[in-house]
């Protein structure tokens, strides 16, 4: 598979501290790639470098073969990235359908096509029955799914997700995994930062482990779980909590 997103020797320093250090990451077209690691490993910083909210100290980021290292976040979105942050940021006072409508309106031409796309996303998200309900009345998991739908409205080629299961029940977490797998089956490339190892096992096709800002291990979920070094720095700590 061709690399859709690549970082090369990517670093971010805060004062004298290297939060991310010489990271080479390759996310291939059509895969679900998960980024894991213990607290302080640099996952969030790397995510922010990729989406453009942090500026790299050194190194390069390529997306679809184009150098986007110095591009601002909106430029990366225009190139085909779409971002789902940890906390849902839906328009809580507006109906669910209106949230989807707002996200779609500049990306779909014609009222009939707009309505069809709204209906498609509402069905995909299992929110059709709640379309007229204010978004703020949805359960937390449903608000997360709605924001995923709003991210999909941008017609991305790469969906970036920062801890999409934060605050979700086990059932909501599993259903979120099913949604991501369905999107991937339709061709979506997904990069996920996550702590929940059961969720990682459910969705991951490839896993990169960060530790102290560096790539510590990479491979399939089976390979990563079987690595005793990973168990020592990450999985073991997870099981202790």
Can you describe this structure?
By secondary structure, this protein is α/β, with parallel strands linked by helices. It folds into 2 domains: 3-80 and 157-240, 3-Layer(aba) Sandwich (Rossmann fold), CATH 3.40.50; 93-155, no CATH class. Helices cover 39% and strands 26% of the residues. It is built from 9 helices and 10 strands. The strands form 2 sheets. It has a 6-stranded mixed beta sheet, with helices on both faces. A 4-stranded antiparallel beta sheet has the order 2-1-4-5, with helices on one face. The chain is globular, with a radius of gyration of 18 Å. Its EC number is 3.6.3.-. GO terms for molecular function: ATP binding; ATP hydrolysis activity. Keywords: ATP-binding, Cell membrane, Hydrolase, Membrane, Nucleotide-binding, Transport.
Topology:
Blueprint: E1 3-14, E2 17-28, E3 32-36, H1 43-51, E4 58-63, E5 66-67, H2 73-79, E6 81-84, H3 96-104, H4 111-124, H5 140-152, E7 158-162, H6 170-185, E8 189-193, H7 197-203, E9 206-211, E10 214-219, H8 221-226, H9 228-240
Parallel strand pairs: 3-8, 3-9, 6-7, 7-8
Antiparallel strand pairs: 1-2, 1-4, 4-5, 9-10
Helix pairs in contact: 3-4, 3-5
The best one-word shape is globular
Q: Strand order, main sheet: write it out.
A: 6-7-8-3-9-10
* Separation, N- and C-terminal Cα atoms: 37 Å
The SS-based structural class is: alpha/beta
Helix count equals 9
CATH architecture of the largest domain: 3-Layer(aba) Sandwich
How many domains? The number is: 2
> Which CATH C-level class of the largest domain is it?
Alpha Beta
Task: Find the CATH topology of the largest domain.
Answer: Rossmann fold
Assembly type: single chain
Give the low-pLDDT segments.
none
What is the helical fraction, as a range of percent?
25-40%
Major beta-sheet overview: 6 strands, mixed
Protein name: Lipopolysaccharide export system ATP-binding protein LptB
Enzyme class: hydrolase
GO molecular function: ATP binding; ATP hydrolysis activity
Keywords: ATP-binding, Cell membrane, Hydrolase, Membrane, Nucleotide-binding, Transport
